[in-house]
UniProtKB/TrEMBL annotation:
This is Dephospho-CoA kinase. GO terms for molecular function: ATP binding; dephospho-CoA kinase activity. GO terms for cellular component: cytoplasm. It catalyses: 3'-dephospho-CoA + ATP = ADP + CoA + H(+). It comes from Abyssicoccus albus. ATP binds at A10, T11, G12, K13, S14, T15. InterPro entries: Depp_CoAkinase, P-loop_NTPase. Its EC number is 2.7.1.24. It is an enzyme of class 2 (transferase).
Amino acid sequence: MLIGLTGGIATGKSTAAKLFEQHGIPVVDADVVSRQMVEKGSEGLRKIVNHFGKTILNEDGTLNRKKLGELIFNDSSLRQQLNHILHPLIREEMNRQTTHLLKTNQHVIQDIPLLFENKLEQHFDLVIVVYIDQQEQIKRLQQRDDISYEAALSKVKSQAPIEDKKALAGIVLKNHGTIDALEEQVKETIQNHF
Ligand SMILES: CC(C)(COP(=O)(O)OP(=O)(O)OC[C@H]1O[C@@H](n2cnc3c(N)ncnc32)[C@H](O)[C@@H]1O)[C@@H](O)C(=O)NCCC(=O)NCCS
Ligand SMILES: Nc1ncnc2c1ncn2[C@@H]1O[C@H](COP(=O)(O)OP(=O)(O)OP(=O)(O)O)[C@@H](O)[C@H]1O
């Protein structure tokens, strides 16, 4: 079974993914793969530099993620351009890792922040959404990334509304409570739906 895990930025996807892994379900994480795809010397980084220029590099030649983030979270056209460059590379690598894992695991989760935005739901047997309301989402994002309300809001607005994602979910994991409360829902999901 191939399971999609999604939600909004900072709603708790990585936290839920870690819990699924602790309960024996392997997770392929799009954010992790996306970092692999832009490592120094990679095809992805070369394409980004060709498009956005050398100013998005740090002095040591690695990607300046903060700078690229400031560009793409404030400009939907630049965001689309970056997505166009990176998403095919990310999808291909995620599918490669997933095929490998499915040889020895009955269930594999793909953690994809933009699963619904990229209309990928038809590829999954089940889609799980990690949900908190937008107010809490902005609060957690501000805390985690140490950013202003405005900066958090523009990151949130660069994705589809969390309420829309909740409505499209096969299963909703509510993450307003403690991590233990989230873990209970993860265990229940594995027992009853996997
Ligand atoms: C812009 C980049 C360099 C910023 O890096 P940074 O280390 O600050 O953030 P990180 O990669 O950890 O992403 C944090 C969260 O931002 C959100 N996010 C990332 N990219 C995007 C995007 N293109 N559109 C909307 N939200 C996004 C996701 O919820 C993600 O979980 C990086 O996010 C990136 O390369 N994005 C493009 C690739 C992509 O779309 N990744 C999302 C998974 S497919
Ligand atoms: N139940 C919870 N109670 C309090 N804080 C939480 C809870 N779940 C997650 N958090 C915190 O909220 C922040 C966002 O969680 P997490 O990083 O798992 O979100 P994410 O959806 O993976 O974000 P991104 O889209 O940026 O990858 C983190 O600082 C995390 O520690």
